[in-house]
Design a protein that fits this description.
alpha+beta, 11 helices, nine-stranded antiparallel sheet, Beta-lactamase, 17 strands
Length: 417
């Protein structure tokens, strides 16, 4: 099932990304080569490896490719459409990181400031160390800083490692929180959860390893404490409303529930099965308590909305007539700030984004490109060299396919330079 969207409509629906003339680039993809993208995604749907997808490509802020393919809810015979809403999980991290950087620009947060200034339980953290078959908990060598959290070098995981899993479970985190990162069903504000997290052991010393985990959820609480405002309100008033992102929210109004795509899982033989209800499946994004605003993985959005956010970043902090961040701040976010801790193979990590330091490190993505993904299978990439934004929205968890890397390679091979 494929829906083609007229390019004229898309051109009118996305605001101009810049107030200055862009550098001269090709305004379209090669039509014959772009058809390979559609054909591949349709093949995945037809083979029952994917229920459906929305794919969007911008060049210089203008849509040059968008397809809504397959089903938003196969069992309900509900077709995928451009305004379908997706759970974006860790794509939330870039938006929360933007909120942090906005407060850094105001002097309300310091990049090297200890997190304990905002969350007291982080004043004396501990680290789980395995030695001679035993686990010991030792004091952290230094305080965890805001920079550590932005770059995922604080040593904070999702609490699923065997050394700490049972301790986290007892506190309602780690194995007790879906796949570790899920809090949409919690009856408490995120800062209460993060205060409790600060009493648990982490898995590496601050600044010594790249450890993916609750880092940006902690930052969400920091935003609340520094701004005296709930995270959802800060993101809405400072980022999504100015950019015209009307469909990016932590929880979906009940009257819009029919716009939310269903979650599927890669089942036996790679074919999809509908994911169960609850934290490890469909989640509580419509009927949940609406109390926990998880800065690391809580938002829902559309391909169109998220592309507006990425255009703001690509354009140096401004879009839709609003400046969200300074150009220098965006440069910090989108350049490697973690040395070789994230990767020794040509990838880095900035203040919220993975970065490409060597051509070929992320397939065809150019040097200086940046992006990330979400646990439900969503994926995005920004390539300043080619003035391109790529967004792929699917809902597949767990995902046994290689759809995401094939998608952006298919886009790159179609670019007219």
């Amino acid at each position: 099932m494929r829906i083609q969207i007229p390019v004229l409509f898309l051109l009118l629906s996305l605001p101009a990304a810049s107030q200055t003339p862009p550098a001269k680039t090709a305004s379209t993809l090669d039509p014959a080569r772009a058809s390979r993208i559609t054909r591949y995604l349709q093949e995945q749907v037809d083979a029952n490896r994917l229920a459906g997808a929305v794919a969007l490509v911008l060049r210089d802020g203008k849509p040059v490719y968008q397809e809504a393919i397959g089903w938003a809810d196969k069992e309900a015979s509900r077709k995928m459409s451009p305004n379908t809403i997706f759970r974006i999980a860790s794509q939330t991290k870039a938006i929360t990181s933007t909120a942090v950087m906005a407060l850094i620009e105001e002097g309300k947060i310091g990049i090297d400031e200890p997190v304990s200034h905002f969350i007291p339980t982080f004043a004396k953290t501990t680290v789980a160390v395995r030695a001679e078959g035993d686990v010991k908990f030792v004091p952290a060598k230094r305080p965890i800083t805001i920079k550590d959290l932005l770059t995922h070098t604080a040593g904070v995981s999702y609490g699923t490692q065997r050394e700490v899993a049972e301790l986290y479970r007892a506190k309602g985190l780690g194995p007790a929180a879906g796949n570790g990162w899920y809090t949409a069903d919690k009856e408490e504000p995120i800062c209460e959860t993060m205060e409790r997290l600060g009493t648990l052991p982490f898995v590496a010393q601050p600044g010594e390893a790249f450890v993916y985990g609750y880092n940006t959820d902690i930052l969400g609480c920091v935003v609340e404490r520094a701004s005296s405002m709930p995270l959802d309100q800060f993101i809405r008033t400072r980022i999504t409303e100015p950019l015209g992102m009307k469909d990016t929210r932590f929880f979906i109004p009940e009257n819009e529930a029919s716009r939310l795509a269903a979650v599927y899982s890669s089942g036996p033989g790679g074919t999809i099965v509908r994911a169960p209800e609850g934290p490890k499946g469909q989640g509580h994004y419509v009927n949940g308590p609406r109390k926990s605003f998880a800065g690391g993985a809580g938002l829902t959005s559309t391909a169109h909305d998220y592309a507006l956010f990425l255009e703001m970043i690509r354009n140096g902090g401004t879009a839709n007539g609003h400046r969200i961040l300074s150009t220098r701040t965006v440069a910090l976010m989108t350049s490697n700030q973690s040395g070789l801790l994230h990767s020794q193979n040509g990838l880095g990590f900035g203040y919220g984004f993975e970065t490409v330091e060597r051509y070929g490190a992320r397939d065809m993505a150019g040097i200086g490109s940046f992006g990330w993904s979400g646990a439900y299978g969503t994926e995005y990439w920004v390539d300043p060299q080619s003035h391109t934004v790529l967004v792929l929205m699917i809902q597949l968890m767990p995902n046994a396919t290689d759809i995401q890397p094939k998608f952006y390679n298919l886009v790159y091979q179609a670019l007219q330079n």
